[in-house]
Design brief:
Helix content: 40-55%
Largest sheet: 8 strands, mixed
Structural class: alpha/beta
Strand content: 5-15%
Number of helices: 12
Shape: globular
Length: 344
Amino acid sequence: MKGILYYILRAYVQLGLRFYFSSYKVYGTENIPKKGAIIFTANHQNAFLDALVIVGKNERITHFLARAEVFKKPFFKWLMSLINMMPIYRIRDGWNTLNNNEEIFKACHNILASKKALLIFPEGNHGFERRLRPLSKGFTRIAFGTLTEQPDLDLKIIPVGINYHNHREFRTRVSIHFGKAIDVQPFYTNSDDHNASLKLRNAISAQMEKLIVHIPEDEYDIKFSQLIKMNPDFSNLLACRDLMENLSSTDGTSSVEKEKQGSFLYYFFRFYYLLPLQLWKIIASRIKDPVMLASIKFSIGIFVFPVFLFLQSFLVQIIFMEMSISLVYFLIGLILPLLINNRA
């Protein structure tokens, strides 16, 4: 039953992602083995929306880790379990909760030993900056711990790069890049080998940097300010890479003007969905962590907006006493988000 609910929920999330993003492109899916134990390691700019954009375009049933605070509410704990999400505990969750991670690590070992897929965000937390932050050793601990229990397991790591143009905006663009699989066995000596862990982290980090718009930390402020003046599409990895290679020979200005914000469709959309947008405005004002905005916005959107659309269509039916008018109203509301192409 849980497996059926997973497929239903994943299909619904895939549909929601089509509405949320104006462009949702995926590259390198041929690098994903159809069978066998794999660990996806991805950069982490967003909250759990990062996991959804990967799972939504990945045919493998994937388990993934998320920070424990998401699981505090019983309903969300149940919902997260349906999509194979497991909590990972940090110091900020309380020292007494860290022992729970041992059970989570064992669950990860079992998932990989069963030749399934696991998604990990090795940066440890999310952040806005367009660079790859240092990777924690958690994913190497899980990988090596699994090989300690299953020495002959063919375990591979697939680096993943997520590139949002501006994930805080509705109808923005995103691209997902799956890198080539890296065999863990050549790096493994034993589960506690620090040098082996460091070598594996460095190898994965080097590959992940190639899959994202990565601006080195020591020159981040200067290069980012130059790049942003060029009005790049951050979801277009190759184009951004070309721009960054030429930054040293340019003053960081561009003759390309930014598209004007706001259009008839955009304002019509805001009028059409006035009530749910006002509800979102109230909720957003109470969110302390700005990185959580997009994930919560998406979650509310796929569950709340359809309800409002049905209710408004039903109200139109009552007012006009005509099913065809209600149906047209519903179809307009359904198609309208797809017509908005946000270039923010």
